[in-house]
Structures are given as structure tokens and as C-alpha cells.
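My hope is that you will study the record closing this message with an eye to the fold:
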Amino acid sequence: MIAIVYPGKLKGAQVAPASKSSMQRACAAALLHVGTTTILNPGHSNDDLAAIDVIQKLGAIVQNEVGKFIIHSKGVQPVGPEMNCGESGLGIRMFTPIAALSKEPITINGKGSLVKRPMHFFDEILPLLGVKIKSQAGFLPIQIQGPLQAPASITVDGSLSSQFLTGLLMAYAASNSQGAVIKVKELKSKPYIDLTLAVLKSFGWKLSHNNYEQFEFHAHEPLATHIEYTVEGDWSGAAFLLVAGAIAGPIKVKGLQMDSTQADKAVMQALQNSNTPMAIEEDGILIGSADEKNTLRAFVFDATDCPDLFPPLVALAAVCKGVTEIKGVNRLAHKESDRGITLQTEFAKMGIQIDLEGDIMKVHGGGEIEGGTVFSQHDHRIAMACAVAALKANSPVKITEAEAVNKSYTDFFDHLQHLGASVTIE
């Protein structure tokens, strides 16, 4: 698919998409919850649908109704020898320890960029939990056989990704591991763990942590037989709408929780640092200005704990006058693409200079953004970042392999059009 985005102004209001971070965790919790779970405001991105498929492979029965999924589960009881997590990094890292709760052997696979992403963590940790594992030198496919047995304590490395820890926390919680302790070294992306803890708490499991360095599991009351969970709006996807509003608005973005534990809520701080006009109102966030004068300025921002913000912030920085510095480049290598290099490559095609200096990305903004052709690199966030920047280009921007947005934000181009953008899909 090719998407051609034309320069122009935006106006109106748009509801943010459902959070795939919240949705996928809710699917995992619903599988682990013995009973019935109703998931309201569910997402329908490729990653969300992959999570639904996985929990069905692991024994859940899923009813898809208007505006909700109803999930019946008796716990992890695989119905076949294999499950596939699609291209979801969270899915593979979260569901692997969960699948290990069963004594049945199962092969875990993925597709696309996921087969190139390292999974060495499981080779090191799962044997300590009594789980047999065979990987392809630390890559997919993985063959495992449980059941996972939670020891009194275990120490894990949290420097690569918090997603591995999310899976362990969920598996431990569901295995009634009262008194067990998971110690963590160098945890990255703490807000994502906050989201995991919030989901577990909403279902009724109890655990605590000491400065994210030690997680302890506690006894809890029996879980309710029927649980409702509402998926909140997605700050990751909304970050692109908010940046679009900042550079081409004003618009209003609805459906976001200001008290959310999602890491990418930090986009609000970056927008504030860039001198973006905005107001938090009762029904949403009003962002941007009708004033044609560009008052956006270069900013400094640490994205170490929210690396998914790099693409939208690069689109923002391209319009801001001066050199923006974003910290956390080292977190970008193992995404759908090597995003530091990919952002540098594709934005160069639009005339934007990006320097990578160790852990710092420097974006030279405020000049003219050039139209032309860019390549999504099969990365959903690269496609969306280029589309947002195109709103301020001097001519249309053609994005090839634009269907990559389906991974997280299926309606992205429709939502841009709803806000007044001129977008042609070929």
C-alpha cells in the first residue's frame, strides 16, 4: 500500500485509538483468570488480534461482540502444539512465560521482524524455573515445556526490555507464588511495568515492589468469577495525533487518561518543552494554534523509558526551530527496525538532518521539509512519523509499504482524513 499525504492544516476532534499495551495485557490477564472476563473498548490492531489468537491457542474461548470481547478461561490449557505472536514484541515476551505454566510442550513462533529480535533472556531464565527450552541460538522459534515452578527468589536483567519482566510477573501472579520474589537489575521502561501492575491489581492479584528492584507476591482473595476491564486510550498512537495537532492544528484529542501509567504519556512533557500551545479540557486535549507563525522551538527530552516516542518526536523536532536533542537511542536497535538509523535515513529524504551521537539523537529542525518518497521500513511508527511530518512539507510525501500502520493503529490514515488531512491511498 502507498499512502500519499499532502501538506495542509487540521481541525476538529478525534478519539485516540485503544491502547495495545493495555489490550494485550488484558488478554493475558483474561487467560490467566479462571472465569469470564469482558474486555470493553478493545483494540483491533494486528498486535491486538495476535494476542486474541494466542489466548485461544492457550485454551481461552473468545466471543467477539460489538464494542467488547467476552473471554471464558479455565487457565492455561493449550489446544495445540504451537502458538504464533505475529510481529508483537510484547506478545512473544509476555506470553512465553505464561505458556510455560502448562506441562504441555509448545512451539512459540512469530513473523516479520520478530524472528530477528533476540530472545536470549528465556534461554537463561526459564531453565531456572524448571522449564525446558530449545531456541535457535536465542532466536525464534522457541520450544518450551513446563510447568513453570516459581522459586523463592530469582534475579533477572531488566536492561534490554521490561516486556520479559511483564510476562514473569503475570505468570508468577497466576501460579499463586505467595512469598516469591523477583529481583531486577537495571530495569528500563518502568512506566510499562506500572501498567502491568495496574492490570494485575484490577483483576485482583496482589504484589508489591521496592523501587522496581524487588517484586514480591502476596496472598489475595479469590478472584471474582466475572471481571470487566476497559482498555484505555493509547498514548503511543495518540502521540502522533498530538504532534500533528502541534504542527498543523489546532485539534482536540479525546479518550486519553491523564492519570495513565502508560510510558508514552510523557509526550505531553516533550510538547510542553517545545512551546506547543495546549489546554487540558474536560472532554480532551486541545492542542496547536491557528496562528501561522511558527513558535515551536527545539527541545531536550529523555526518551530512555519511552523509546516509542522517538518517531513522533522526530516529526515534531523537524518543525521546531533549532537542534532538538533526544536521549535514549540505545533503546532503538531491537524494534521493528533499527529506528535510530531508519529515522535518520527516511527523514533525510525529506531534507531533515539527524545526527546520532552515542545515546543522543540530534534533529536539525525549523527548515523546509521536502516532499518526495519515503519507505516505512515495514515499521508502523516510521510510517506514521513520516505522514505527520508531511503535513508541513513543501509538497506531497509518498509513503511506501504504508500498511505497516496496521500493526498498532489500523485507522491512522482514516483519522488523519477525519481531521481534514488530504490523504490518497493507492
Summary: The domain at 20-230 is CATH 3.65.10.10 (UDP-n-acetylglucosamine1-carboxyvinyl-transferase; Chain).
